[in-house]
Design goal:
The chain is an alpha/beta fold. It has a single domain, classed as Vaccinia Virus protein VP39 (Rossmann fold). It is built from six helices and ten strands; from the N terminus they run βααβαβαββαβββαββ. The chain has a seven-stranded mixed sheet with strand order 4-3-2-5-6-10-9, sandwiched between helices. Strands 1-7-8 form a three-stranded antiparallel sheet. Strand 3, helix 4 and strand 4 form a beta-alpha-beta unit. Helix 1 packs parallel to helix 4. The chain is globular. About 45% of the residues are buried.
């Protein structure tokens, strides 16, 4: 999680309208998929707060009777696999075919599909939970309501949504990452109250806003809501 207090020093820019952002995101994560999986393979084991947040999400889903849970923007499937280990019927969706290939390789017993959060190939009201774990960070502001409307559509009444994202203000262009491979994606940092307002506008009831400080000048945010 990266939300540095000195955004200007890291080249953050005000621009949030990114032409071709879906194609850029897909290509970038296809390029880094294998390296990304290696870099983050054991990251969750070192993050007790993140595991606790995911455990709370699982408890809220079970309180709604269990049912399918979608990890939207699942990357190489590490969080999907964790949700499965703690008892959820979880599957993953990611924009990047390269990421889905790695997820299927590393977690052959689980279901992974290529798809976009702005147009999910999931039936109305069919899910009990949605997790978007640092996957909205590349979605421009004007496209976030579209993604959240899709989340609302595919969740059943009472269904739980958990959003994790970089906390702060501003956007920066990421041109390299995960093993030094080239990337071309904007990373958007947002405040929890702003994300909560978007969720409310999409028809969700917001239940909690949390900010995590894993290191000095670093913040991640999490918002829980239900349909």
């Amino acid at each position: 999680m990266t939300c540095l207090s000195s955004l200007a020093a890291l080249g953050y820019r005000a621009r949030v309208q990114v032409p071709g952002w879906l194609d850029d995101t897909r290509t970038s994560y296809d390029t880094v998929a294998v390296s990304y999986a290696e870099v983050l393979r054991d990251a969750l084991a070192r993050e007790p707060f993140q595991r606790g947040i995911l455990a709370l999400f699982a408890e809220l889903v079970r309180a709604q009777g269990n049912g399918p849970v979608a990890d939207i923007g699942c990357g190489p499937g590490r969080i999907t696999a964790h949700l499965h280990r703690i008892g959820l019927d979880a599957f993953g969706v990611d924009l990047s075919p390269g990421m889905i290939d790695v997820a299927r390789r590393d977690h052959p017993g689980l279901r992974f599909e290529v798809g976009s959060m702005t147009g999910l190939d999931i039936a109305d009201g069919s899910l009990t939970g949605i997790l978007a774990w640092f996957s909205l960070i590349h979605v421009p502001d004007d496209e976030v309501p579209t993604a959240l409307a899709e989340f609302h559509r595919v969740l059943r009444p009472g269904g739980v949504v958990l959003l994790g994202f970089h906390c702060g203000d501003g956007s920066r262009l990421k041109t390299e990452g995960y093993g030094g491979h080239p990337m071309n994606v904007y990373v958007h940092h947002r405040r929890p109250d702003r994300v909560a307002a978007w969720l409310a506008a999409a028809g969700f009831t917001v239940e909690a806003e949390l900010v995590h400080h894993p290191a000095p000048d670093i913040e991640g945010a999490f918002v829980f809501a239900h349909r």
